[in-house]
Predict the 3D structure of the following.
Amino acid sequence: MRLILLLLPIFLLSNENNRTESFLSDIEYGEMLYNNPRGIPCSKCHGKQGKGGHKIAKYYDKYSNPKILKGADITKYTLKELEASLSNRFRDKKNHRVRHKIMPIYYLTYEEIRAIYLYLKSVKKKSKY
Ligand code: HEC
């Protein structure tokens, strides 16, 4: 993965004749940010495509029962909800504030959040087939 990130700028530069086409699309930009959002990658907890479901951690509750924490599916949120979530201001359907116990706060711009949103939407569409 690191190698790909290192090679990406070289690839983009070496493609000068084709400048406009070699530029990242919003969705590709969103995919990059999803995996490298200046913090822990979203993919670590929400899976490669935002569908969650995989194990983040195993822990024991106060009765010593083993529990597994799974990542949430985040492919069905609106752009507004995503914006609120990333700054830990998310509200559920009953307008109750959901305080994050685990998810960190990110410092992404509106454009960056929008790109992540478009990436998640593209994944949702693709996976129908
Ligand atoms: C360390 C694990 C972790 C990382 C990294 C993470 N999340 Fe989350 N996310 C969670 C958990 C757990 C929840 C459920 C709320 C909670 O307990 O924090 C959640 C909830 C959400 C929700 C649902 C709304 C809400 O706020 O409850 C969205 C949307 C979301 N995450 C998007 C993202 C995006 C986008 C990124 C990357 C920029 C990201 N998450 C990174 C663990 C993580």
Observations:
- The pocket of heme C is lined by residues 37, 40, 42, 44-46, 56, 72, 74, 77, 82, 85-86, 90, 98, 100-103, 106, 116 (CB under 6 Å).
- Residues 16-20 have pLDDT under 50 and may be disordered.
